[in-house]
Amino acid sequence: MGSVEIQRTTKRIRGGDPVGLGVRLRRYALLADDGVVKVLNLEEGGAFTMSSAEDMLAAL
């Protein structure tokens, strides 16, 4: 499975491509331990409320 397919299955693809910039992803932060995803914080819209360094440090 390629990276775009992985992005689609985890709902990280953002809208269409109205200006020819290719596939765009939603902002997210991911915490993995030994290849296993432990935390996946997906942002909604233009918000930056769950993917900051502070949020990820708190998840540790």
From TrEMBL:
Keyword Magnesium among UniProt keywords: no
A Gene Ontology biological process term: cellular response to oxidative stress
This protein's record includes keyword Oxidoreductase: yes
MF GO annotations: thioredoxin peroxidase activity
Gene Ontology cellular component annotations, sorted alphabetically: cytoplasm
Record keywords, A-Z: Antioxidant, Oxidoreductase, Peroxidase
Gene3D superfamilies, alphabetized: Glutaredoxin
Name this protein carries in UniProt: Uncharacterized protein
UniProt source species: Acorus gramineus (Dwarf sweet flag)
